[in-house]
Amino acid sequence: MNGDEEEARARAGLTAVARPGDLWLAEALSEHGAAQVWSALVRGEPPPGGKGQTPPRWMAWARGAAGVDIDGLLADSAQAGVRFVAPGDPEWPGRLDTLPTGRDCYGLWVRGHGDLRHLCLRSVAIVGARAASPYGEHVARELAYGLAERSFSVVSGGAYGIDGAAHRSALLTGRTVAVLAGGLDVDYPRGHAGLFAQVARNGALVSERPIGRSPRAPDFLIRNRLIAALTPGTVVVEAGRRSGALNTATHANELHRILMAVPGPVTSATSVGCHRLLREGRACCVTGVEDVIEQVVPLGQSTEFTGPVAVHADLAPETARILAVVDEPGVGTAEVAQRSGEGLERVMRSLGMLAAAGLVERCVDGWRLPSRRGRKRA
Amino acid sequence: MNGDEEEARARAGLTAVARPGDLWLAEALSEHGAAQVWSALVRGEPPPGGKGQTPPRWMAWARGAAGVDIDGLLADSAQAGVRFVAPGDPEWPGRLDTLPTGRDCYGLWVRGHGDLRHLCLRSVAIVGARAASPYGEHVARELAYGLAERSFSVVSGGAYGIDGAAHRSALLTGRTVAVLAGGLDVDYPRGHAGLFAQVARNGALVSERPIGRSPRAPDFLIRNRLIAALTPGTVVVEAGRRSGALNTATHANELHRILMAVPGPVTSATSVGCHRLLREGRACCVTGVEDVIEQVVPLGQSTEFTGPVAVHADLAPETARILAVVDEPGVGTAEVAQRSGEGLERVMRSLGMLAAAGLVERCVDGWRLPSRRGRKRA
User: Fold this and answer.
1) Where are the domains of chain A?
2) Is residue A110 within 8 Å of residue A139, measured between CB atoms?
3) Which of 267-306 (B) contact A at CB < 8 A?
4) Residues B285 and A275 sit within 8 Å (Cβ to Cβ)
5) Taking the mean position of all CA atoms in its chain, how far away is CA B39?
6) What's the gap in Å between the CA of A277 and the closest CA on chain B?
7) Partner-chain contact A285 B272, CB within 8 Å
8) Which residues contact B326 (CB under 8 A, 6 or more apart)?
């Protein structure tokens, strides 16, 4: 087990004992590393804290850590099609590195065939009220369909209403990422179990909480920062006066992401939140997919998708050899190493890079080439 | 005839021969005065131009001036209940003095019992598409009703659609000003003849064109700058992609007035213009009367109407004597002078001030106390 793997395992353990967003833990991790923090907790000792101070909540974490079997957790997760992605992993979405300390993410549980980093590279978040109006759901569908058609992944929260409409519509032409507040085997809300299965086939489900955890109230608010953080821009389609989507909007503002709001009839209670964002100058007004793309694609850059960031011709010979071995779905990393004749370390790095470039995809039992649509583009 | 009266008569004549918005004429007026310009034109001579240059279009104006009988025009106007208000007149709306040279207004024809200056002091313009949707008309009605109820005059363009809805609704609780593109006896559009009669009874009709003139295409665009200029802020309720209301919006921006837009469904063609104004950051988003009042009432100032700007107790003794004489509707200026024992000059100034303060009102045959509602407030 190398150092990175040890760090990742410790972080996986931490997701089971501490909610994200603890400034003490974040500082301890960044100064001493997860492995050292975790081993102290497992021994029932105060972990080394940031700036030489012991995190005040360490005893609760230690009690939790005593009951965590990381190997078992990882094995059960794999059984449920769930993998753990830690900072530095090739699948880790780079945008999360911009989260301020105290809001950072210890690691992500991911379920689905899509490579999360690749899915988030060109993405837009579409969020909104659960109690959406037919108008709002219509607009969410139109936006999600159009964005997916133009190779943007649609990121949302998997809830009823706007979120569900956006995920479903994105699946018709492209990919989608559902960021959930609870464990990825929990299917919350239950009525979206079928949708989540589809998202896993064509995109990814993401959570900061380990399997088996039902989401609780604070989890939704903490989760919202991830929706904002994973994407360059968030569109609020409909939001009532106290909609949770406004919390996501606040995160987008604070994380300096682009915040967009869709206007609606001033007579509609489900547009009140959107109009407030517009009136306060916190969001820009978007009325369709072209407006959204204009906002999220940097000035001077083509709004057309120009294919993955690397193409076969540019690949180093070893990387090309590794890619050539992924010839049927479900090739495991060890098998790729063996058949390509490259070392495991290099194979892992190369597969990560190939995944980020959209040339291979993770699947539950290993690696595969991207679906037809993705391949044609490359 | 004193100098001011001569100036005003010359300006009345000019409205019959030149459209507003001629930079040459504006400069000539400001440097040499209207009387001198007019007498040259009547003699068929080039008028003295601004910066020593002869206005290039002077011959067309001279041809027009030769056919204008100012006395006849004023008499016919009075017959139609129309008076002429020139810059400096007590009824002249002070905001028009902020129009940049070349866009300035030579004078206004006014029809109605309201004092124009007083009507515009606390006012908001509500404009929008002629081909309005039921949604747009509903919002226009709600805004106009609420603003009128809070003692704001509603200024609009008298057209079908949003304008008409705003005027009608304002009349239910308060006052309204219709700024027309043609002569005030023309009733354009014809279907609004009844509405215009009501506006005259409770507010004012305004035009830069003399009686008898049917409005032509450019008149509408020139008129739009007046709607923006007369008010501190303009609300665009609905506007299609090429709606004339967007022209009014541009004037409001250029004149540094507050521009507001009402959002609507993104699926509605009649909200496209409003959304563009919002997206481009040219207008702020307003969803109801409270939002509008928050925008147009300066920070720190009460949004409640605190009555006219002067009250009886503050009046100079002569002014109080003059006010006391306006005891029945239709007292003429000369009669007020005779009965109060004050000079005609002072009576005219005092009545203008009293009108601006909302303590007296013009009516077709002279002066009267304001309607019950107004009096109660004072």
Assistant:
1) 3-78, 111-296, 312-377
2) no
3) 267, 271-272, 275, 278-279, 281, 284-288, 291
4) yes
5) 27
6) 9
7) no
8) B336, B351, B354, B360, B367, B368, B369
Q: Mark yes or no for CB contact B287/A266 under 8 Å.
A: yes
A101 close to A78: Cβ distance less than 8 angstroms: no
The predicted-structure confidence for B5-53, as pLDDT tens digits, reads as follows 999 999 999 999 998 888 889 889 989 999 999 999 999 999 988 777 8
Partner-chain residue, chosen from B135, B275, B284, that has the shortest CB–CB distance to A265: B135
CATH code for B111-296? 3.40.50.450
- How far apart are the C-alpha atoms of A124 and A147, rounded to whole Å? 8
Residue pLDDT, tens place only, B267-320 = 999 999 999 999 999 999 999 999 999 999 976 676 665 544 444 555 677 788
- DSSP-derived letter for residue B235 is E
Residues listed for chain B: 378
* Cβ-based contacts of B278 with chain A (< 8 Å): 263, 278, 285
Tens digit of each residue's pLDDT (9 = 90 or more) over B191-235: 999 999 999 999 999 999 999 999 999 999 999 999 999 999 999
Closest-CA distance of chain A to residue B290, Å: 12
Place of tokens 């039902």: A214
CATH topology of domain B312-377: Arc Repressor Mutant, subunit A (1.10.10)
* A135–chain B Cβ distance below 8 A for any pair: yes
Residue B336's H or E segment, with its range, is helix B333-340
Sign of the four-CA dihedral A27, A28, A29, A32: positive
Q: For residues B187 and B214, is the Cβ–Cβ distance under 8 A?
A: no
Any idea what DSSP says for residue A183?
Answer: -
Contact (CB, 8 A) for A70 and A35: no
Strand (E) or helix (H) holding A259: strand A258-261
Tell me: ipTM over 0.85.
Answer: no
Q: What is the mean pLDDT of chain B?
A: 90
Please give the Cα distance from A55 to A67 (Å, whole number): 20
User: How many residues can be counted in chain A?
Assistant: 378
Confidence of residue A253 (pLDDT cuts 50, 70, 90): very high
Buried b (16+ CB within 10 A) or exposed e, A178-194: bbbbbbbbbbbbeebee
- pTM for the structure as a whole: 0.81
